Amino acid sequence: MTEKPLQLALVGATGSVGRAVLEDLEARDVPGIPRLLASTRSEVDLLEFRGEEYEVEAVSERSFRGCDVAILAVPAAAARELAPRAWANGCLSVDLSGAFRAEEGVPLVVAGVNDADVARGSVRGVVASASGPVVSLALTLAPLHREAGLVRVVVTVLFPASSAGRAGVRQLEREMVALLNGEEPEPSDLSHRMGMNLVPQVGAFLPGGSTEEEAAVGSELRRLLAAPGLGITATAIRVPVFYGHSLIVNIATARPLTVEAARAVLRASPGLKVIDDPAGRVYPMPMLAVNDDAVLVGRVREDASQPNGLDLFAVADNLRRGAAGNAVRIAEAWVRQRLS
Prior knowledge:
Largest sheet: 7 strands, parallel
Number of strands: 15
Low-confidence stretches: none
Number of domains: 2
Mean pLDDT: 96
């Protein structure tokens, strides 16, 4: 919670992430009424927020005046254009597009992991929100890193259909209907069918065989944990689930960490919920994470194949927590720091 109403401009308010931002603001009762903006012509003129309807405006020269923060839930090209315009009006941009994640002078932030870095947003007027799966991964691994020191991370990221936007959700809906009726789905914009299938490619391939998304997991996590020498390898797979990033994680630590101690560390960490009772068949699942602000963590167990090894499974709502929730918390941190 901020100490004064959050003067927020929400660009891309009518999209999936924009609507998730409104849900997060409402659910956590963040004070203030956001200015609802669309970077391009929108078919939606009004959006409901706290029981009232508010107009969605086209971005103009006046859009950012009087605002503390603009959340940019727009494509990268639009974010690059709008961020300087917002900063010219004294309004920090929190970018969700990925346009600024590798830019010099732009801090990469996961709220709850490296909040102090938000202050460096004043260099360029932009703070980059980490990619959705890395938000969940950093929140999960940061407390374990502080406790025992990570030396290696192996992670498989399962991407839901919604990570490809509304088009991905609609595609999976169409495919499942067709398949359940014994029909072959029509070709789509994505490279392969998602329904009843797994696609081991998310993002373009790079030299060496990794995809852009897989490479980003390593580069972002090292920055967030301030661990440039940390060994990380990632595999990204698109799965036939509508919502929720899932993370299959194997780690090795510098110092011994028992399963019981790891669970205790995770339970004590804000933003996490430990759901771990295998005997009772209780563990994280994507359906449990939808509309939850927390990262759900479970299946914590020893990896006896290596010294100081642990395995775990984590899931989080990719829209509500991985994108919207992180952006709003960054905005709140910026306002708190400016007031202090």
